[in-house]
Every structure is written in structure tokens, then in C-alpha cells.
Amino acid sequence: MDKFRLLEKRVLRSQEGLEQLSAFIEELPIGILDFDLETKRVVGLNRALRDLSGYEVHEAASMAPKDFLAPECMDLMKNRVARSLKGENISEHSEYAFYTKSGKKLWCQLAQRLILKNGKPWRILAVVQDITYRKRLEKARQEGEEKFRNILENTQDCFYQTDIHGNLIWTSPATAKLLDYALDEVIGKNVARTFYARPEDRERLLETMRSSGKVSDYEVLLQRKDGTTVWVSTNSQYYTDENGVIQGVEGVFRDISAQRRAEKQLREAHAQLEQRVAERTRDLEEINRDLKEEIARRRTSEKALNDSENKYRTILENIEDGYYEVDLKGNFTFFNAAMARILDCTPDELQNLNYRKLADKETAGKVFQVFSKVFKTGKPFKSADYQLVKKDGTRALLNISVSLIRDMDGGNTGFRGVVRDISERNAAEEEKRDLELKLLQAQKMEAMGTLAGGVAHDFNNLLMGLQGNVSLILLELGKDHPTYERLKKLEGFIKDATGLTRQLLGFARGGKYEVTTTDINQLIAKTLEIFGRTRKGIRISKALGDVCPVDVDQGQIEQVLLNLYVNAGQAMPKGGNLKVSTRNVHLDETFVAPHGLKKGRFVKTSVTDTGIGMDLATQQKVFDPFFTTKDIGRGTGLGLSSAYGIMKNHGGVINVVSKPGKGSTFNIYLPASESSVQEASPEAEGVEYGVGTVLLVDDEEVVLRAGQEILKILGYTALVANRGRKAIEIVKAMQGKIDLVILDLIMPDLHGGEVFDVIREINPKIKVLLSSGYSLDGQAAEIMARGCEAFIQKPFTVEALSQKIKAVIGS
Q1: DSSP of 157-202, one letter per residue?
Q2: In this structure, what are the phi and psi dihedrals at residue 521, rounded to the nearest 5 degrees?
Q3: Of 206, 335, 511, 645, which residue is least crowded by CB atoms under 10 Å?
Q4: Bridge pairing between strands 246-255 and 158-163
Q5: Distance CA 657, CA 606 (A)
Q6: What is the CA radius of gyration of the chain?
């Protein structure tokens, strides 16, 4: 400004000085304005200002300030003119918006100097600098910061920053929400003492960071305000000052309580941008310096804008959540890669696509209502779940937030928000509920099976007494005796009752009787032939594949198949189609886990009928014992429950798929065997007599009496013991003179397995025939594995017992 004072003196002294000053001002590269305070008109513009405004001097002189100044700047101009008329030499810079001759709106910075004439205010000489580009950069930076802030406020990831002592100095709203605090409550809190459920976790985290500088996917247990805890996975690192000195820890964490599994992490780069506006200038040298500083500031602003955009872009491209912007019509104008991935679209396909194309009519209407509400109220819509349709037609369940986008003038231009794909989480929750129901059903069946097994065992002992006495009487009577046929009928009734207990044991998973490697297709052909003779009104078809062998008790699996055929036949009282198919399948962990099995190869058999079908409630009860849809007296309700137990005992699975009026399909899955199919050996018939000493051990008196008589009739010397300890005493006393011990499995004093081990110590060569009302499984199978010669199931006939004894000890 010293140069201006010198120029002012020269103007007053000489015309020559005035002309030199005018020429100098005319050639300056920055705008100079001469304003007359008396007329309040522009009386001079140099070339730079004429080029900038488009006005010549005479055009500007004919215009009042209101003709070219923006309305919002008029009060400022009037104020400064009024102050100048009072003789005040205003030193501070001011910013004005004015319109060029072409109508373009520009922003300029004005530095003025008051010129006196005869000691009174005369004119204002002003330096005019175009700052329009700088204003645009500042606006763009503000919009970038607003987008960045909006992302932080809407994302569900939690960002934080602590000082070197672990005190929280900054965090995102999601942190306070996750920990159930108000945002101002958490600032300043020490994270180890306040938020870590186990403060030692903080020390381990810092120790890891001291060795590597950061941690990734580090899981810690945090504590909410109400004392409950939440697992989070964090990515954290030290941050430093400009000299590289560590100032504290910053990072991001995410709630992983549901599965405690690490997912893709959000890495955030955040920086706060500050810019200082150029210093005021008073003279021409300061003007030149301002020009250089303005160039430097422009470069700084451009770099800051680029940095902000890069950080903004880095965050958007690395977060797992989708980010979107749509115009007021709902067309996508901007989005990150995650958004395109979630919707299964390429960026080109998603650009300018309307959201209505991704939703059915109902969902599109709901989203439109949300947009309308946000548009009217201006308030963000936090989140809600909607189903959108991907490109391939599949549906995705998305959690969506919405907020407004405004332009520089505050007008609404569109909507933005964050989208999270929760399809997998929702599916996992449904799968969990399904697994819980299956587990509950399995536990219920297990409990009922234990009860059924006990009942069947006791009932078998009673039947053994009946069968034994009937067998004795039949042996004593000839076929011509008047009561012979009645006794045979009674024996048939006992056999039927035995079949009922076998069903109970099957449901109770009471074991297998005789396991052989079998071709399931042969069993199907055999059982279908039997069933077909009884139901000629049903059309039977087969689709039997080349399947692996299976290790099964053939009698039990035949029972399962026949139960399924009979069930299908009863569902088709007027006839229909019955189809049986087999194929090899591989069951994965998801399928077998609820049944407590291992994944692998299985043979699947499907029995499909065209009957009346079942509703969901019936399907859930169909394997329950004693459940039946038949009239009283027409069914026991044990057929399918015993099939369920038999399949469980074989390490297999049985399920049903059905709809009312659409028929039913029962599927059974048996583990595939690595062995070859075994050919069945012919069974012996009739009573086999012999000689030798046999010790019968059983705690049921009726079994002992009947068994002793049967053994005598068969030619054997019969010894009996009603307790395990008594049996041991007899074996010791006989000193190797016992040829065979028929040993009961369940006794009150010693278990059959304990008795077996003791008598084998006494006489390692003694032969043992294991007898039980239960089947060959569990404890019985363990005894057989330790060297027991054979097993016989109660109740047994004279023929069955005689043949078993002959097979063990010979003639």
C-alpha cells in the first residue's frame, strides 16, 4: 500500500504522474475498479477486469451496483460504501458475487483503498481478484466431507481412536449404539477399564501391535453398559504425528457375536482437511504475492480434494456393505463394487438402472414410500429389510438405509444409503431353528425308545415262559391229540406277540439280530413280491439302480420295507401307483449332523405312493410310537416308529415328503458297505437232540423252569442259576465239566458281561450262548466281540434253542 500512497501523491502533483499510474493500472494482470462515491457509479475498469466482466467502462458507468451484484451481496456493498463516505479506510478483504455481461455468476475478492479529495472521501480504488474456482473447490470439499460423514453415521461398523493411554478420543455413532451408551458418554472413557470384559485382552492386543505395528481380525470380548458382553473382531494400528511419534491407537471393529467368525474387514483412512484463506494485501507487491499464494492454495485444495475423494473411494471399495446413490426418479447414479456384487450386476448394468427393476411390485411400493418420507421430512431412514431380485432371478434379503442428497443451493437431488446383504444370516437362523426342531424330535424319540425297549424286554421274558411251556406240552403230545391244534394256535399267538415286541425293540433302536452284507435291491424285490400278492389293485413299479451293498439285519430291513408298503397301500384304499427306487448318494455334513451321523456314501431307497398324502402336522408326528390316523383296532401305531428305530440303529436316516392330495414319498438312507454281498446259507429245521451238561443262567423263575425242562427233553443235563454270582460258584465247583452256559444279559446282582468275563477266567475254553429279551446290540454286541460263541433272542422255541446248542457244542 506504500506504492499506492506514492501514486496518490503523484496524481495530485502532476498530470504526467496520473497518466503513468493509469497506464500501469491498465496493464496489471489483476482487476482494478475505480468507484465514484458521489455518483455511486463505476468510473474505471482496467483491461483485466473488463475481460473478466465483459463490460466496457461506459457500460459499467451506466449501471447501478444492483444491476450487476448478486442480491445477497447488496447489503455488504452498501455497508462498505457508507463506511467509506464517513472517511473510514477499510482494510479487510470482502467477497462478492456478481454477474458478467453474459449472465455468468462469478465470485471475487475485493481489497479497497479510499481516495480523498480536499480532505473528503472522493473515490474507492479496489483490487478485484477472481476466486470462483477456489469457491467451487471449497464446495466440492464440503460435499466430500458430508458424504464421508454420512457413511460413518449409517454404516454398522464401529470406528474409534484412542490416545496413548487408551482413552477414547473419537468414535463413530455405531460404537455407542453397539455398547448401549450415548455418544457423549463414551468419549474420554478408558477402553481397557470400561469396555473390555477382560482387560488383559487389551494388553495382548497392544503386545501384538508393538511387534507388528497392527492387528488384523483380532477377536475380543467387549462389555456393554448394562453388563452384557459382545464379541467383536477388530483391525487396529498405531497412529503417529508428523514426526513419527506414536500418539495412540485407531481402528475399526464389527459385531461378530452371532457366529464369532471373522468376515471381511473395513479399513478406514480418515483425515481432517483444513485450509486457510490467503492473507489480505494492501499494495501491488502484496497483490503479486497473493497471486502466487492463490495458485499454491489452488494446488493444495486440489490435492486435498483428491485425497478426500481417494479416501472416500477407498472406504467405499473396501467395505463389505453396499453404498448407493440414486436420483429422484430412483435411477442409480453412483455405487461401490460391493453394491453391484450384492445385486449380482456388472457396474455397466447397474448404472442408470431404476431400483423398481430389482423388486416386485409390493416391495417397490414400500421402498417408494420410504423415499417419499425422507424427501418430505429430510430425516434419514435408518434401516429396514427388503427382498430384491438379482439378475439371475434369485431373491436377496437386504437391510437398507436412506438419506437425502442436496446440491450447493440446498435443493434435493436424490438419495443415498448403505445396503447390507443379510440373506445368509437369515438363512442361517432358519437352518438353526430347523436343526433345533430335529434335535428335539430325536431326543423325544430317544426317550420314548428307552421306555419301549424296557417294556419289550420284560414282555419277551413273559413270552419266553409261555413259549417254553407250550413247547414242552407240544413235545409231550402227539399231533393227533385233541388239544394239539389249539396249542399250535397259542404258539402262533406267541409268535405274533413276539413280532410286536420286535417292533417295539426296533423303535427303541434295540439292536440288530444278524447283520450281513446285502444287496438292498434283492430285499426290495422279495418284499414287493410278498406285498403284491395281497394288494393286486395297486400298480407296482421299480427303478432300482446299480447301488452299493449295505450291512444290515435283513429281517429288520424287510420289516421296514413292508411297513412302508403297507402304509402306502392304506393311503390308497381305491388303488393307485407304488414306485420303489434306489440310487447311490453322498450326504454332506449339513444333512447328517442333526442325526448324529458322519457324512459319506449312502444308499437311498424311496417308496412313493399316489395316495391321500399328509399335512405338515401329521408328518411331524408320523414316526411317534402309537401315533396312527387309522380307526381304533386297525393299527398299532408302531409300524413307522419301529422303522425309525431300526434305521437309527443301522446308522441310517428315514424321512418323509408329502402334501395333502399329492401322495407321499418315504426315503431311507443306509450307509454304503465296502464288503461284498454274502450269500444266505440254508437254515436247519426240526428239533436237534444231544448230550452234555448245560448251565442255564436267568433271573426269571418262569424262564428257568421252562428252560430246564426243555434241556432235559433235548437230552442234556440241566443246571440252573437265578443270579450271576450263583452261576460263577457252579462253574468253579464243576471244574470244567460244563459244556455250555446259556447266559442272560440283564440280571440284578451282576451284569451278563461281568459274569462272562469271570467264568472265562475260570475256564477259558467254556462255551457261552448269550440270551436276552433285548436284541444283539450295545452290551450284547460287546460281549460277542469278547469271544462269546452265539446269541439267541427271547422268546425262543425248542427248535431254535436245540439248533443253537448244536451249532455251538456240536453233536
Answers
A1: SEEEEEETTSBEEEE-HHHHHHHT--HHHHTT-BHHHHTBSSHHHH
A2: -65, -35
A3: 206
A4: antiparallel
A5: 10
A6: 48
What's the rounded Cα separation, in Å, for the pair 751 and 721?
Answer: 14
Grid coordinates of 4: 499506492
DSSP state of 331: B
CA distances (Å), origin 646, targets 199, 497, 504, 671: 53, 18, 10, 13
For 386, half-sphere exposure in the C-beta direction (CA atoms, 13 angstrom radius) is 25
Question: Would you state the cell numbers that stand for residue 802, as one nine-digit string?
Answer: 436245540
Question: Of 796, 806, 788, whose CA–CA distance to 716 is shortest?
Answer: 806
Q: Is the pLDDT reported for residue 196 higher than 50?
A: yes
How far apart (Å, rounded) are the C-alpha atoms in residues 50 and 42?
12
Determine the residue type at 153.
Answer: E
Cβ pair 134, 301 in contact under 8 A: yes
Place of cell 427393476: 357
DSSP 540: E
Amino acid letter at 193? R
DSSP for 667-709, written as a single string: EEEEEBPSSPPPPPPPPP-S-----SEEEEE-S-HHHHHHHHH
Cell reading at 345: 450386476
Helix (H, G, I), strand (E, B) or coil at 597: coil
H/E element, 460: helix 423-476
Q: Provide the pairing of β-strand 120-130 with 31-36.
A: antiparallel
Query: Tens digits of per-residue pLDDT, 732-755?
Result: 998 888 999 999 888 888 888 899
Q: Could you read off the pLDDT of 464-482 as tens digits, one per residue? A: 666 667 676 766 676 777 7
Q: Map grid coordinates 452299493 to a residue.
A: 548
The helix/strand count (H/E) of the chain reads as 27, 27
- In this predicted structure, the answer to whether residue 434 has a pLDDT above a threshold of 80 is no
Q: Please, which residues bridge with residue 159 across strands?
A: 252
DSSP 265: P
Handedness of CA 36, 39, 41, 45 (dihedral sign): negative
Contact 589, 599 (CB under 8 A): yes
Q: For Cα atoms 430, 433, 434, give the angle at the middle one, nearest 5 degrees.
A: 85
Q: Is 810 within 8 Å of 790 (Cβ atoms)?
A: no
**Average pLDDT, whole number, for the chain?**
79
CA distances for 360 relative to 332, 365, 389, 395, angstroms:
17, 9, 8, 10
